[in-house]
Specification:
The complex is a heterodimer of chains A (213) and B (114). Chain A is built from 7 helices and no strands. Chain A has 213 residues and is mainly α. The N and C termini of chain A lie far apart (67 Å). The chains are: A mainly alpha (213), B mainly alpha (114). Chains A and B meet through helix 2, helix 4 and helix 7 of A and helix 1, helix 2, helix 3, helix 4 and helix 5 of B.
């Protein structure tokens, strides 16, 4: 009897025995990280597929001619700024300052909506010029191909990312409303923040490899 | 206590924000220069890794997390590097672009000796 109790205690005290938290986080934060890792793998798959398609394509349109790079840079600025403000919201929530937290969350949402607005503009412009997921209207060195991969990659990658931004804004709005009502927890704000920073990280990759490379 | 800590944290976030903007402009500059494609890719990879390092360490607080969580979060990056190098070899020998260019010229390469 005594021996089994001691054994149980020994197991619980060990690193992976269940009595400790090996990652030193709350379960919800750890689950958010697991979600982010799986989502990162999705985007990694997209970006590597894009790299593959681009390598085997006979030509690729010049992005600086096709896209309005000023707008893209502004979108990047909006997302990075909203990410910085989100970090401050998490800081305020941790410090127990609900008023500051909801104010920062509101600013984060404004940044996200600015980004989405720009993306809607970009998409409508792109579609207006004749781009479709299966057709690229922009001229190339090899005139016999239209490299539909270009438009396909654009719609898939920015579409998926934009949908993540939209989801993020929705989550942030819920957290902000709860914060304004005083019904939030710092962990909740932090988890929403992790997701939002992840969306920013994905955009850093898309900006560098889709728009600039 | 919390009041005293908050401004310090904000200042750090502002510094990270400024650095991220600087590196965004740097990436933009690299994108516009006409250097060899491989060098451009390498520079953009370096800038991107620096940016995600900053976002991860400070905004996502990985600097204050345990090392096993940090390693876990960077696993997709390692896996994507492996995936990239697995598929990159295929692109060197993939005949898709040859078929597309040849197809427009003529059918002369079709059945050369009969």
């Amino acid at each position: 009897m005594d021996a089994s109790l001691a054994e149980q205690q020994r197991i619980l005290a060990s690193e992976w025995g269940g009595g400790k938290s090996p990652f030193g986080t709350t379960w919800s934060k750890f689950m958010m990280w697991i979600f982010i890792i799986s989502d990162a793998l999705t985007f990694a798959g997209f970006l590597i597929a894009y790299g593959f398609m681009r390598q085997v394509a006979p030509a690729w349109p010049s992005q600086t001619e096709v896209f309005n790079m000023g707008l893209i840079t502004f979108m990047t600025f909006a997302l990075i700024s909203s990410s910085a403000v989100m970090a401050m919201a998490v800081g305020a929530a941790r410090a127990g300052d609900a008023k500051a937290a909801s104010r920062f969350l509101f600013l984060t949402i404004v940044g996200g909506l600015t980004f989405l607005g720009c993306q809607v503009f970009e998409w409508s412009h792109f579609i207006g010029e004749g781009a479709r997921p299966w057709f690229n209207p922009f001229p190339l060195e090899h005139p016999m191909t239209n490299v539909p991969q270009f438009a396909a990659a654009f719609f898939l990658i920015t579409g998926f990312h934009g949908f993540h931004v939209l989801s993020g804004v929705t989550i942030l709005a819920i957290v902000a409303i709860r914060a304004a009502m005083g019904k939030y927890s710092a962990v909740q704000v932090e988890n929403a923040g992790l997701y939002w920073h992840f969306v920013d990280v994905v955009w850093v990759f898309v900006f560098a490899f889709f728009y600039l490379l | 206590m919390a009041e005293a800590h908050a401004p310090h944290g904000y200042k750090q976030y502002m510094m990270v924000w400024v650095w991220l903007l600087v590196m965004t402009l740097l990436a933009l500059g690299v994108g516009y220069t006409s250097i060899p494609h491989g060098l451009k890719a390498l520079l953009l990879v370096c800038i991107t890794l620096a940016k995600i390092g900053l976002i991860g360490a400070f905004f996502m607080h990985l600097k204050f997390e345990r090392m096993n969580l940090v390693m876990l979060t960077f696993s997709p990056l390692v896996l994507s590097i492996i995936l990239f190098f697995f598929t990159y070899g295929e692109t060197r020998y993939d005949p898709t672009h040859l078929i597309m260019i040849r197809g427009a010229n003529s059918v002369q390469t079709e059945a050369p000796k009969h």
